[in-house]
C-alpha cells in the first residue's frame, strides 16, 4: 500500500479508475448473473413442476387400473424436458414404486414415496406432484431435474462477462491514460515549477494556470505565495547587503582604530624618546654655551693684552672639561637615538629578525622610562642572557608597551607603588613569557572579555579598548603563540604568553 | 373406504394375480374387477338424461350374487363425483352400469341386450366381443385388462375420458 501511496499521481489515477471500473463491472456482472441464475432456476422449477403436474394428471388412469406399461409410457414424456433426469411414479397409499423413467433403471428413484420431498440444491431440482383421482390422492410423481445445463449456460455467460470486463478494463486504461493528463498535467507542471524554484531560488518564476478548478486555485495560491516570498527575499537581500556594508564598514573602522592605536603608541614612544634625549642634549647645550662664553671672555682678554698665562691654562682646563661633558652627553644621546630608532622602526614595521630577548625588552623599557618615572613603580626583568629568538621585534615591542601601559593605567591607584615583573624562559622550541603585576587584579566578569576588541573599563578617560586586543592578535597571529590570563581581584594579574622561539612563516597581523 | 379398492389393486399387482380365463373367478379377481368398475365410473361421463337429479345415486347392477357382494364391499361408502353408489342384483331397472359376469356368451348377451335406453354402461367378460357391450374384461399376462368398444360407447351416449382410453384396448371408433 505504501508503494501505491508513493506512486506518481498519473499511475494512481489510472489504478483508481481501473479498479473502480472493474469493481462496477464486476458488481454489475455478479448482480446480473445472480439475477439470471435466479430467474432460470425459477423458470426451470416452474417448468418441471408444470410437467410433473401434467404427468401426474395423465397417470391417474394407469394407477387406477394398475397399468404399469401405460404409466411408463406416460412418464417417458418427461424426455421432452431436457433437464429431466428421472421421473418416478408411486402408488398411494402403499407408497411403492409403480413406474419410472428411464424405465431401465429404478436406481434413480427413491425406494418409497415416504422419502419424496421437493428439493433444490446447486446440482439438482426435485419436484413432487400428487396424482389425484376424483379428489383422492392415488399416487405421487417425483421428477428429478439436473441443473448442470443451466450452470453450463451460466458459465458461458460468465465467460462473456469476463471478456467484456477485460475489454472494458483495457478500454478504461486506454481512455484514462489518454485523459489523465487533464488532471495530472497541471499538478506535474506545478511540481516542476516548485522544484525549479527550490533548486534555483528564483522566486520570480510563476506557475501557469490552465484551468479554473481546484488545481487552478492551487496554482493561484502557489503564485501568490511565490510573490510574497519574492518580496520577502528581496527585502532580506537588501537587508543583507546593508548589513554586509555595515559589517565591512565596521571592520574598516576597527582596522583604522587598531592602526590609530598603534600610531598612538608610536607617538608615545616618540614623546619618550624626545624626553630621554632632552637631558643629554640639554647638558651638551649648557656645556657648549658655557664654553662659548668662556671662549668669548678669553678672546677679549687676549685682545686687550691683559691675558695672563694662568687665564689660558684655566680656559684650556675648562674647555677640556666642557668637551668631555659635551662628548659624553652627545654619545649618550646618540646611543639613545640609536636604540629608540631601532624600537621605533621595529614597532612600525613587521620586520622579522634574530635578536636577544633580554636586551630588546630592556630597550623597550628604556623607551617607556618617561612614563614609568612618573610613577613609583619598579620593573623587574628576569630573562636569561643569550635567550635568542627569531621573531618579530616590532610585535614584541608593541606587546610590552601595551602591557606596561595597561598595567600603569589599570593595576594601581594613583600614588601607589607596585612591581611589574617580566619573566621569560625557553622551554624546548617555545618561549614562555610572563608579565605580571601585584596590583588590584581583574574582576572575574571582565576576564573573559579582556582580549575582546573595544572592551574597556576606562572609556571616559581615553581608553580605546584595543590595547589588549592588539596584544592578543600579535601573540596569536603574528608570533604564532597563545595568550592566557590569570588574575583575581586583589591578587594581581599575570599574562602568560607562549610562542615559538622561531616564529612560524607567514605570520601576519590582521587589523 | 375408497382406499381399500386401490389397496386391492395394488396388492394384486404386487403379488401377481393368479386368476385365469378358464377357471372360475376367484374372490381376488372379482374384487379387482369390482374396483375397476368403480374406477370406470370415475373416467366416464353419463348423459344428463341418465339421471333424474344431480344427487341421484349411480346404480351398479350385476347378475351374480357373489359379484354384487363384492361390488357392494368395494363401493361401500364411496361416491363418484357427488353421487353415492348403489349395488343391485339383476334384473333391475334404472341401472347406470350393468355388469354381466361369466364367460357364457348367450347368457351375457341376454343382459347386454336388455339395455333399453342410452346412458347405460355395459360391462361383460366373455372371450368374444358382444353386441351392446361397451367394456369387456379379459385377462392377459395374469392381469385384468379391458377392451372398450367406442362405437357402443357412442351409441350408449357415454363420454369416455381419454385417460381411460389410453389404458384400455380400443375396439371400433371413427
Architecture blueprint of SSEs:
The complex is a heterodimer of chains A (about 500) and B (about 170).
Chain A: H1 2-5, H2 9-58, H3 60-64, H4 68-76, E1 84-91, E2 97-101, E3 119-120, E4 124-133, E5 136-146, H5 148-179, H6 181-200, H7 214-304, H8 309-348, E6 353-356, H9 357-374, E7 378-382, E8 388-391, H10 393-410, E9 419-427, E10 430-437, H11 444-447, H12 467-478, E11 482-487, E12 493-500
Parallel strand pairs in A: 7-9
Antiparallel strand pairs in A: 1-2, 1-5, 3-4, 4-5, 6-8, 9-10, 10-12, 11-12
Helix pairs in contact in A: 2-5, 6-7, 7-8, 7-9, 8-10, 9-10, 10-12
Chain B: H1 2-15, H2 27-43, E1 44-45, E2 58-62, H3 65-75, E3 79-80, E4 83-89, E5 97-100, H4 105-113, E6 121-124, E7 135-140, E8 143-149, H5 150-155, E9 159-160, H6 162-167, E10 169-171
Parallel strand pairs in B: 2-4, 2-5, 5-6, 6-7, 8-10
Antiparallel strand pairs in B: 1-9, 3-4, 7-8
Helix pairs in contact in B: 1-2, 2-3
Helix content of chain A: 55-70%
Distance between the termini of chain B: 38 Å
Please indicate the percent range of residues of chain B in DSSP E strands (runs of 2 or more): 15-25%
- How would you state the average pLDDT of chain A, rounded? 85
Q: Biggest sheet of chain B: strands side by side, in what order?
A: 3-4-2-5-6-7-8-10
Shape of chain B: globular
The largest sheet of chain A, given as strand count, sense and whether it forms a barrel, is: 5 strands, antiparallel
Unreliably modeled segments of chain A: none
CATH architecture of one domain in chain A: 2-Layer Sandwich
Q: Structural class of the secondary elements of chain B?
A: alpha/beta
Tell me the β content of chain A. Answer: 15-25%
- Total DSSP helices of chain B: 6
Q: In order across it, which strands form the biggest sheet of chain A?
A: 2-1-5-4-3
Largest β-sheet summary of chain B: 8 strands, mixed
- CATH homologous superfamily grouping of one domain in chain A: PAS domain
Amino acid at each position: 500500500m505504501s508503494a501505491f501511496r508513493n506512486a506518481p499521481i498519473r499511475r494512481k489515477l489510472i489504478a483508481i479508475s481501473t479498479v473502480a471500473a472493474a469493481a462496477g463491472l464486476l458488481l454489475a456482472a455478479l448482480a446480473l448473473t445472480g439475477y439470471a441464475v435466479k430467474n432460470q432456476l425459477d423458470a426451470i422449477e416452474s417448468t418441471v413442476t408444470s410437467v410433473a403436474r401434467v404427468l401426474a394428471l395423465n397417470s391417474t388412469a394407469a394407477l387406477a387400473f394398475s397399468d404399469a406399461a401405460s404409466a411408463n409410457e406416460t412418464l417417458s414424456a418427461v424426455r421432452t424436458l431436457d433437464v429431466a433426469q428421472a421421473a418416478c411414479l408411486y402408488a398411494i397409499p402403499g407408497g411403492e414404486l409403480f413406474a419410472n423413467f428411464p424405465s431401465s433403471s429404478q436406481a434413480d428413484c427413491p425406494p418409497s414415496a415416504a422419502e419424496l420431498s421437493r428439493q433444490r440444491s446447486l446440482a439438482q431440482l426435485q419436484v413432487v406432484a400428487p396424482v389425484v383421482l376424483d379428489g383422492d390422492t392415488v399416487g405421487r410423481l417425483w421428477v428429478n431435474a439436473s441443473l448442470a445445463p443451466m450452470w453450463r449456460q451460466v458459465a458461458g455467460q460468465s465467460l462473456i462477462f469476463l471478456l467484456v470486463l477485460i475489454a472494458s478494463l483495457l478500454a478504461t486504461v486506454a481512455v484514462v491514460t489518454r485523459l489523465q493528463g487533464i488532471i495530472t498535467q497541471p499538478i506535474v507542471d506545478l511540481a516542476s515549477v516548485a522544484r525549479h524554484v527550490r533548486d534555483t531560488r528564483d522566486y520570480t518564476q510563476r506557475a501557469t494556470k490552465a484551468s479554473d478548478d481546484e488545481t487552478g486555485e492551487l496554482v493561484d495560491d502557489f503564485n501568490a505565495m511565490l510573490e510574497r516570498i519574492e518580496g520577502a527575499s528581496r527585502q532580506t537581500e537588501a537587508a543583507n547587503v546593508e548589513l554586509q556594508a555595515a559589517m565591512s564598514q565596521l571592520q574598516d573602522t576597527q582596522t583604522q582604530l587598531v592602526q590609530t592605536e598603534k600610531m598612538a603608541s608610536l607617538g608615545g614612544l616618540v614623546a619618550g624618546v624626545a624626553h630621554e634625549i632632552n637631558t643629554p642634549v640639554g647638558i651638551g647645550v649648557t656645556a657648549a654655551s658655557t664654553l662659548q662664553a668662556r671662549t668669548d671672555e678669553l678672546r677679549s682678554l687676549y685682545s686687550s693684552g691683559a691675558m695672563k698665562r694662568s687665564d689660558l691654562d684655566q680656559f684650556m682646563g675648562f674647555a677640556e672639561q666642557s668637551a668631555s661633558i659635551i662628548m659624553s652627553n652627545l654619545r649618550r644621546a646618540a646611543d639613545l637615538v640609536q636604540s629608540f630608532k631601532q624600537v621605533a622602526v621595529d614597532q612600525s614595521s613587521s620586520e622579522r629578525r634574530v635578536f636577544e630577548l633580554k636586551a630588546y625588552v630592556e630597550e623597550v623599557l628604556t623607551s617607556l622610562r618617561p612614563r614609568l618615572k612618573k610613577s613609583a613603580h619598579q620593573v623587574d626583568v628576569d630573562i636569561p642572557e643569550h635567550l635568542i629568538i627569531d621573531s618579530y621585534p616590532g610585535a614584541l615591542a608593541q606587546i610590552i608597551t601595551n602591557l606596561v601601559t595597561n598595567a600603569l593605567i589599570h593595576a594601581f591607584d594613583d600614588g601607589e607603588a607596585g612591581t611589574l615583573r617580566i619573566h621569560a624562559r625557553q622551554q624546548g622550541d617555545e618561549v614562555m613569557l610572563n608579565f605580571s603585576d601585584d596590583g588590584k587584579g581583574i574582576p572575574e566578569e571582565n576576564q573573559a572579555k579582556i582580549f575582546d576588541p573595544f572592551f574597556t573599563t576606562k572609556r571616559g578617560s581615553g581608553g580605546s579598548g584595543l590595547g589588549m586586543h592588539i596584544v592578543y592578535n600579535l601573540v596569536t597571529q603574528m608570533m604564532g603563540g597563545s595568550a592566557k590570563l590569570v588574575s583575581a581581584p586583589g591578587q594581581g594579574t599575570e599574562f602568560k604568553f607562549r610562542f615559538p622561539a622561531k616564529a612560524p612563516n607567514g605570520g601576519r597581523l590582521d587589523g | 373406504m375408497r382406499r381399500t379398492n386401490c389397496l386391492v389393486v395394488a396388492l394384486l399387482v404386487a403379488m401377481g394375480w393368479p386368476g385365469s380365463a378358464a377357471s372360475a373367478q376367484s374372490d381376488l379377481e372379482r374384487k379387482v374387477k369390482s374396483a375397476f368398475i368403480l374406477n370406470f365410473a370415475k373416467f366416464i361421463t353419463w348423459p344428463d338424461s341418465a339421471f333424474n337429479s344431480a344427487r341421484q345415486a349411480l346404480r351398479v347392477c350385476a347378475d351374480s350374487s357373489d359379484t354384487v357382494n363384492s361390488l357392494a364391499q368395494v363401493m361401500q361408502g364411496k361416491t363418484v363425483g357427488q353421487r353415492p353408489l348403489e349395488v343391485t342384483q339383476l334384473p333391475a331397472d334404472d341401472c347406470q352400469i350393468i355388469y354381466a359376469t361369466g364367460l357364457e356368451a348367450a347368457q351375457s348377451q341376454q343382459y347386454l341386450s336388455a339395455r333399453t335406453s342410452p346412458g347405460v354402461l355395459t360391462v361383460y367378460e366373455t372371450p368374444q366381443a358382444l353386441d351392446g357391450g361397451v367394456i369387456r374384461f379379459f385377462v392377459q399376462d395374469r392381469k385384468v385388462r379391458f377392451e372398450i368398444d367406442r362405437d357402443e360407447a357412442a351409441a350408449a351416449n357415454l363420454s369416455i375420458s381419454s385417460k381411460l382410453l389410453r389404458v384400455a384396448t380400443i375396439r371400433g371408433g371413427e
